[in-house]
Amino acid sequence: MIEWSVSIAAVGFICLVIFLIFTLRKLMATLTETKETLSDARKSVNSITDEAEELIHEANKISTDVKGKMEAVDPLIDSVHDMGDMIHDVTSSIKRTALQKENRKTKDSKDNQKSKPVQIKLK
């Protein structure tokens, strides 16, 4: 009876070892595949990193170029602003002059009923 028990235990142990061998082989295959996947991922990340670096350098160049062009346009914008102020001053002066003339003519027309006052409409 002991011999049978030992032989059954030996057969069970052999089956367990065979099962473990198959499991370890599958595990090794999975680890190899994982290693290849990680290697491919590293290559892809390195490639993307290089492209991102290049893109950042190009963006910096464009930013510098735009900044330089904006600095070159600033005097023109200041000149246009000054010109707008001058036009506003001239327009205000013309309005004041027109109102003063209209007031004078209105006073003269009261004295002289025959002539009609000239009115200038400004928007």
UniProtKB/TrEMBL annotation:
Keyword Membrane: yes
Residue ranges crossing the lipid bilayer per the database entry: 6-24
PANTHER family: UPF0478 PROTEIN YTXG
Compositional bias segments (type: Basic and acidic residues): 99-114
Pfam families assigned to the protein according to its UniProt record, in alphabetical order: DUF948
Keywords: Coiled coil, Membrane, Transmembrane, Transmembrane helix
Biological source species: Halobacillus litoralis
Highest classification ranks of the organism: Bacteria, Bacillati, Bacillota, Bacilli, Bacillales
Name of this chain's protein: DUF948 domain-containing protein
InterPro entries assigned: UPF0478
Region: Disordered, residue numbers: 96-123
UniProt feature coiled coil, ranges: 24-58
